[in-house]
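General statements about sequence and structure are easier to judge against a single worked case. For one protein, we set the task of working out the structure tokens from the amino acid sequence alone. This step matters because it turns folding into a mapping between discrete strings. The amino acid sequence and the backbone structure tokens for this protein are reproduced below.
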Amino acid sequence: MAYADFATPDQMEKRSQGAITAATHPFLEQELAAASRAIRDHCGWHIAEREAITLRHRGPFTSRLWLPAMEVASIDTATVDDVTYDVATVDFDPDTGWTSLVGRRWDVTYTAGHEDVPETITTLALHIAARALGSPLGITREQAGAVSVGHTLVAPGASGGTAILPHEAEQLAPYRIGALP
């Protein structure tokens, strides 16, 4: 499933005060998509925007069905071991995704996600993409005479890229599923 990016080229142009535009950085959209994907992968779910998701499981018995999302708005359909449930009778925790459903085979459609992209997520996507665009060749430091410019390092001796740095991972903690606060 393809999800919308957390930030747009127009937002990047405004955030960078015109320094980064689609005209001057032809890979801007690609880097915004990569930053959005990195954030989603780190957090373990799509985060935004709110949408219906179908989950299917065939295998060992599950003691309780877990929906891999936060901001669960509703369970729309639920069939477990060939029994269709009245979704009004299914208990679920909208913050953690835990449900009262148990069984071996289940098909569940649920609606989850923030209606709008949280501002902290948009800002972080812009920051990660800008860092990747700032050193597209992976240069760690440049010097011309007495002027020296160092680029953000994402690992020892490596700059650029869409890696999530430790302080950024801390910012994402409230949106990460399966993590204890």
In short: The helical segments are 9-15, 28-43, 119-134, 166-172.
